[in-house]
């Protein structure tokens, strides 16, 4: 423990002034008897429990930092409600958020002149837009890879599609003035590294200008018509649908317009990258043989019934769920009840807007009592389908878009 947090203490083991300031900010209040803290003692902190506002059926994969997924059957709503949206934090929640004084700064090598807006100015100066946007963690599905890869073992529930309201990043960038050499944007948020060391960056990712300038790329202050919940990035976040949700920066205070590929935390090394060439499962190629994940692959969920359902024979079963395909749209959703031997087309609806998930429904009839699996398989508008069981293995366990499968027993 001493070693990991040693940067917080001075040589005699007292909390440094800067560490105390960090803690005070984090707690949102003064530590009254700070001068009485024993050497090398780190206050426990009265952390806000993000699970207090969540549906009881969500599954905590990690609480330091919080990583929480939503079982598929709880993703049945057309638009994911706040209490059912997955949580993926890389650091500690910033707890003393003040919407009144919050600002967004646009800076970087490729702006004509850096500019800062208050939240109120953003709301007044630019036209607001509302879009349903699918956010999926690139690590969603990691638990399905064999051999096992390290990281949070997400099954199917690191995804959701909420309705976000805010202003277009492209409108803000036009107001600031971007130079011709702009290549990428990078975000900065107010969360803290788990070590409490304020000099350690948590996550600072971004996207190329072509994605940053899309109509649906929002600087959002509302989710499903209400202020964004703390755990989802209050009071302001970047929301970029269709790409790894790691590019949708929470607790957003700064966007840098870069003249090169953004090199913030978790943009370098192998984070959020896939091998350029297929690798043998278990092999880990050198860093220069990886590429940054951009649009997420085609995928779908069966949200009704819940896996393990016991049904009485004879009646047809109505199934439903959602399908999405990164920057693309989904053109077909098919269902199999015989382990992928034959497929039946589902009724697939168009998306409410670009980058929102699409809803599907289907009715199946089981020939006789017994055990079945229902498999769902989506195909995108470029003709690419989900792999049935496991896609190309990769060392970080990203982008597992294998068909979602549920078990049903007909009695
Ligand atoms: N500032 C900040 N932004 C962040 C993260 C974070 O840890 N800190 N996590 C990212 C990752 S990896 C994901 S998958 C999404 C999760 O968004 P959610 O928790 O609102 O579902 O937020 C992204 N934005
Ligand atoms: Mo993520």
From TrEMBL:
SUPFAM superfamilies reported in the protein's UniProt record: E set domains, Oxidoreductase molybdopterin-binding domain
Annotated ranges, domain Moybdenum cofactor oxidoreductase dimerisation: 292-409
Domain Oxidoreductase molybdopterin-binding: 94-264
Taxonomic superkingdom: Bacteria
PROSITE patterns recorded: TAT (PS51318)
UniProt KW keywords: Metal-binding, Molybdenum, Oxidoreductase
InterPro entries xrefs: Ig_E-set, MoCF_OxRdtse_dimer, Mopterin_OxRdtase_euk, OxRdtase_Mopterin-bd_dom, OxRdtase_Mopterin-bd_sf, TAT_signal
Cofactor: Mo-molybdopterin
Keyword flag Lipid metabolism: no
PANTHER family named in the record: SULFITE OXIDASE, MITOCHONDRIAL, SULFITE REDUCTASE
This protein's name: DMSO/TMAO reductase YedYZ molybdopterin-dependent catalytic subunit
Biological source species: Spirosoma utsteinense
């Amino acid at each position: 423990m001493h070693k990991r947090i040693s940067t917080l203490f001075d040589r005699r083991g007292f909390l440094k002034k800067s560490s105390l300031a960090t803690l005070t900010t984090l707690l949102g209040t003064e530590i009254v008897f700070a001068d009485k803290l024993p050497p090398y003692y780190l206050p426990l902190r009265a952390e806000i429990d993000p699970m207090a506002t969540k549906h009881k059926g969500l599954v905590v994969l990690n609480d330091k930092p919080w990583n929480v997924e939503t079982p598929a059957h709880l993703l049945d709503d057309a638009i994911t409600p706040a209490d059912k949206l997955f949580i993926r934090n890389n650091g500690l929640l910033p707890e003393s958020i003040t919407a009144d004084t919050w600002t967004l700064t646009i800076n970087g090598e490729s702006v004509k002149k850096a500019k800062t807006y208050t939240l109120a100015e953003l709301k007044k100066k630019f036209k607001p837009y509302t879009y349903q946007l699918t956010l999926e963690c690139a690590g969603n599905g990691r638990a399905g890879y064999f051999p096992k890869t390290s990281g949070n073992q997400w099954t199917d529930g690191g995804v959701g599609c909420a309705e976000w309201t805010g202003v277009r990043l492209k409108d803000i960038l036009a107001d600031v003035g971007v130079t011709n050499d702009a290549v990428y944007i990078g975000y900065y948020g107010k969360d803290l590294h788990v070590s409490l060391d304020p000099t350690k960056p948590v996550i600072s990712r971004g996207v190329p200008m072509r994605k940053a300038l899309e109509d649906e790329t929002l600087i959002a202050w509302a989710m499903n018509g209400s202020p964004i919940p703390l755990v989802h990035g209050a009071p302001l976040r970047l929301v970029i649908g269709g790409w790894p949700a790691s590019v949708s920066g929470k607790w957003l205070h700064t966007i840098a317009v870069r003249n090169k590929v953004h090199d913030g935390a978790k943009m370098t090394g192998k984070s959020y990258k896939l091998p350029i060439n297929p690798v043998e499962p278990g092999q880990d190629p050198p860093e220069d043989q990886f590429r940054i994940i951009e649009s997420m692959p085609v995928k779908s969920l069966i949200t009704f019934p819940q896996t393990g359902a016991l049904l009485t024979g004879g009646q047809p079963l109505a199934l439903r769920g959602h399908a999405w395909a990164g920057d693309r749209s989904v053109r077909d959703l098919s269902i199999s009840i015989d382990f992928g031997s034959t497929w039946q087309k589902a009724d697939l609806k168009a998306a409410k807007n670009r980058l929102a998930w699409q809803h599907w429904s289907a009715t199946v009839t089981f020939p006789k009592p017994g055990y079945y699996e229902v498999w769902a398989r989506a195909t995108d508008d470029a003709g690419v389908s989900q792999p049935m069981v496991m896609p190309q293995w990769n060392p970080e366990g990203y982008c597992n878009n294998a068909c979602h499968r549920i078990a049903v027993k007909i009695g």
